[in-house]
Design a protein that fits this description.
The chain is α/β, with parallel strands linked by helices. 40% of the residues lie in helices and 13% in strands. A three-stranded parallel sheet has the order 1-2-3, sandwiched between helices.
């Protein structure tokens, strides 16, 4: 499983479970958001990643996240 913002690279290298992140310098955050909004963003992305770990998949999968 990989959390990344460069989805095409993760697909090319063969990551089986891919969770999109926000950006290169701030993969799980956004400094322009309030502290509370950043916490919600991080909580959601990490939650998707934890759920992805338990998913039984047959092919490479990019998991959906809220923007």
């Amino acid at each position: 499983m990989q959390m990344c913002n460069l989805i095409p690279v993760a697909v090319t290298v063969g990551a089986n479970k891919i969770v999109p992140t926000v950006s290169i310098p701030y993969p799980l955050g956004n400094p322009s958001l309030s502290e509370e909004e950043q916490w919600k963003l991080r909580h959601h992305r990490v939650g998707v990643a934890l759920d992805a770990l338990t998913e039984d998949i047959k092919e490479q999968t990019v998991f959906k996240v809220k923007i």
